[in-house]
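Bench notes, afternoon.
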Amino acid sequence: MYKFGQGFSSMSAPTKEFEKQVLSRGFRHDGDLVTKWMLQNVAINTDPAGNIKVSKSDSKGKVDGVVAMVMAMGVYLLAYYEQTKVSDTDGFKYIDFDD
């Protein structure tokens, strides 16, 4: 299990990488209409420090699948590119993304 917050500090790096993959056509959804619809609903919020995260802004549509994909990107980035504290409790790996 992974603890992964949805604040700017946890979401910024994976959102930037996900955006880069989408814009460079590195992300493929094989024409999935629901994913395409959710991507069209996405807006990006920025905090004063320049961190970004997915928002649906004024859209009435859903963005939950995109948020889930960004969070998956965050787990991938953490696992392969960043060092973090990992603890093993009862056979589960816990990573605190907010450290």
